[in-house]
Amino acid sequence: MELGLSIYTKVSSRPCTTRRVYQAPWFDMYLSARESVVLNFNPFMSFNPDPKPEYNDQLLRATNMVCSAVRFMKTLRAGLLEPEVFHLNPAKSDTDSFKRLIRWVPPSISWFGAYMVNAYPLDMSQYFRLFNSTRIPKYKRDELFTNDKGRHLLVIRRGNLYVFDALDRDGNLIKPAEVQAHLKYILTDPTQAPSFPLGVLTSENRDTWAGLRQKLLDAGNGEALQLVDTALFCLCLDEEVMRDHIHISHNMLHGDGCNRWYDKSFSIILAKDGQAAINFEHSWGDGVAVLRFQNEVFKDTTEKPLVGPGSQPAAVDSSSAVRRLEFKLNEEVKAGITKAKENFQAAVSKLTIDAMEFKKGGKEQLKKKKLSPDAIAQLAFQMGFLQQYGQTVATYESCSTAAFKHGRTETIRPATIHTKRCAKAFVEQPGKHTVEQLQGLLNECSKYHGQLTREAAMGQGFDRHLFAMRYLANSKGMALPSLYQDTAYAAINHNILSTSTLTSPAVSLGGFAPVVPDGFGVGYGVHDEWIGCNVSSYPSRNVHEFLKCVHKSLEDIFTVLDGKPIH
């Protein structure tokens, strides 16, 4: 699963015609997929709570997040959002003085100034799809739709869809007290949940949804659907209080299917107790863009909130400013909604999620031992799976290729001869190796994983090259080379361990479903003093046992790093 600009110059948020050419194969892969986007594609990333408890009130947090999201959008579209930069020597390049200096350098040569201090600008071409964007279901291949003229927000509560203008006629954010008043009006609206909630159709098979959407259009719902599609983004106000991390994961990854519009580029979901997350549609972009947005919104809402516990909603007529969308539904569409609910429940009922926190060490300790934190986490997954199932399997780790123009992702292949050798030594033959030998095996894994990561980030992985060649062969009507029909190629693309990592002060946890029926979806983060995993599975795998095995593997690794033998 996934999660070239001049440095410190203005960032273009305009669509680029060449983007469609460069990214066509990748877009085709996502947009031609007919499976539901729920579980199969859309991931989630949950926000940490606001450090000030009183600001976690659902209405207050929703108001602040909407305002901060609009402020981010305004900064982006004005070309004033600070570019994403990879700093190899942050002491020189990630400084206010360097940023002030480089602003005056002409764009044609500013890249050279950045290069001289080992700073590399990252591609931000995905960002324009963050706002006013929707995936439109079409027969055989969906379309991405963006119209930046929309000034309104889409809000969903109890399966009812509402819109109100968050921007005034000049394109500026309306008063925060007005946003608060409109959201309060929606939160107190006594309208009951509809018997046929339209949002659940976005969880359907894409061809099924495309057919039903056409029937909605034929029945005269075009204007209402256009308001959904052109909205800035979607805000989902949920009625439930979150019990624990597992409940949060299920709610933010899929929810009940009725209080969502999964096709929007992203949705901010707010539970009754103020727990918040972003669920995003994956075809338009990757976690890098969404995480930047999430980081900025969290920072802005926690450091400079525009409304607080003492704020009063504006005395405005929200009943005229807020519109609840109504749809004309014929019997065929109603039957489609009923069927979509059944299909949704059948799919999500099979998903199990569990989480684990390893508190006996993290990034700091590993770096002192000159080991890659990511390499050790990935090794623990290999060891855990070997301990549970007696084998090692195809493993996928996503890696951003944003160092390239219009870059998306490449695959790191963490399961190697080095991890297999090390995992077998730890799991099957611990008594046959000295502590020093086991430490040596850990070093080998770390070095090789570091090499694979560098290669993937710099476009030297093999997965996307093979993907592109297969795409070209298919598009030209050529017979597929024998490599693509080899059982080994099928095996390496049946990713039983699908993994993705992120750590951020804004994010509590992230997650996604397995990419194959007999797989695990492994979201993880290596923090300074601890390591966390949020893992999903379907019935053919036992996620609880897997996490116990991963925890045991980490215990063994850190025991060896402390110079002690394992038993």
UniProtKB/TrEMBL annotation:
Catalytic activity: dodecanoyl-CoA + (R)-carnitine = O-dodecanoyl-R-carnitine + CoA; (R)-carnitine + (9Z)-octadecenoyl-CoA = O-(9Z)-octadecenoyl-(R)-carnitine + CoA; (R)-carnitine + hexadecanoyl-CoA = O-hexadecanoyl-(R)-carnitine + CoA; (9Z)-tetradecenoyl-CoA + (R)-carnitine = O-(9Z)-tetradecenoyl-(R)-carnitine + CoA
Top EC class for this record: transferase
GO biological process, alphabetically ordered: fatty acid beta-oxidation
Database matches in Pfam families: Carn_acyltransf (PF00755)
Family: Belongs to the carnitine/choline acetyltransferase family.
Protein purpose: Involved in the intramitochondrial synthesis of acylcarnitines from accumulated acyl-CoA metabolites. Reconverts acylcarnitines back into the respective acyl-CoA esters that can then undergo beta-oxidation, an essential step for the mitochondrial uptake of long-chain fatty acids and their subsequent beta-oxidation in the mitochondrion. Active with medium (C8-C12) and long-chain (C14-C18) acyl-CoA esters.
UniProt protein name: Carnitine O-palmitoyltransferase 2, mitochondrial
Lineage: Eukaryota, Metazoa, Chordata, Craniata, Vertebrata
